[in-house]
Design brief:
Elements lengths: L1 E6 L4 E5 L11 E7 L6 H15 L2 E6 L6 H8 L5 E5 L5 H11 L5 E4 L10 H12 L1 E7 L7 H17 L12 E4 L11 H24 L6 H35 L6
Parallel strand pairs: 3-4, 3-6, 4-5
Antiparallel strand pairs: 1-2, 1-7, 6-8, 7-8
Helix pairs in contact: 6-7
Length: about 260
């Protein structure tokens, strides 16, 4: 399995491995969002359950208002102390299911994986062991994509571009369902909000000035459109400054927390 990792010191690493590294650590939760996977679950759950039990991992399933038998299958499987089933009354989408599962975690580390059987449970250990050894805040599984259609390729490139504006480090497969997180709140430290909000604010102000200057030069006053563009531009600039400062403070806190006693 190939994966990218982001560490608190702002470095990205790339590793490709298929090793099954044994890791026994109780402070890990595996979150699996589920939507209409009744055909796959009977074959996927026993393997995942045995793996989690052998390593002492917690399992959290989030049923995203499935309309098939997924919920009943999960209810029977989760009759176990280390397994939890959370259910949405209405479908909230993949991202909403992930948020529900992650919020319910009480462990320092979280791994997310899909319920369609495309991920191998043993790869959880690969991500976890690597994350522990590198003190990484996030490790992202990277799939080897076969040749795909034009629209899907464009979509992947667009996602990577937007992610690159928020995170200064390149991630090859951001929409991979298999990721490891260390202390979810730490993830904010890896974002660079100024790279998004600062250009947007500048564009708004630029358009506002370009739109409003002709009116001002003709002594016709300032139009409502100009005022709105300038106000929104200033708001985005303010958000960029504040968010960037918060991210930098959090990065400093994480580095201080990770210092060894002898080094501090």
């Amino acid at each position: 399995m190939a994966f990218d990792h982001l560490s608190e010191d702002g470095r990205l690493g790339k590793t490709t491995t298929r090793m099954n590294i044994p890791v026994d650590h109780p402070d890990l939760t595996i979150v699996i969002p589920v939507f209409n996977e009744a055909d796959v679950l009977p074959g996927f759950l026993p393997e995942l359950g045995a793996f989690a039990d052998n390593h002492g991992y917690q399992l959290i399933f989030v049923d995203d208002a499935s309309t098939d038998q997924s919920a009943s299958i999960l209810e029977a499987f989760c009759a176990h102390a280390s397994r939890t089933l959370l259910r949405h009354k209405v479908n909230r989408g993949y991202g909403g299911a992930l948020k529900t599962g992650i919020r319910a975690c009480r462990s320092a580390y979280v791994v997310t994986m899909d319920a369609d059987g495309q991920h191998r449970p043993e790869d959880v250990n690969v991500l976890f062991s690597f994350g522990l050894s590198r003190k990484a805040d996030m490790v992202v599984g990277r799939r080897h994509h076969p040749r795909s259609g034009l629209y899907r390729a464009i979509g992947r490139r667009l996602i990577r571009f937007l992610a690159g504006r928020l995170i200064k480090l390149p991630i090859e497969d951001l929409n991979s369902g298999m990721k490891l997180y260390r202390e979810i709140l730490n993830i904010v430290a890896m974002f660079n909000p100024g790279r998004i909000f600062l250009p947007i604010g500048t564009v708004f102000i630029g358009f506002g000035l370009a739109w409003g200057l002709p009116f001002i030069l003709r002594d016709e006053g300032v139009s409502v459109g100009t005022m709105l563009l300038l106000v929104f531009g200033l708001i985005f600039l303010l958000v960029a400054v504040v968010a960037e400062q918060v991210a930098q403070l959090r990065r400093g806190q994480i580095r201080d927390e990770d210092l060894d006693p002898d080094e501090s």
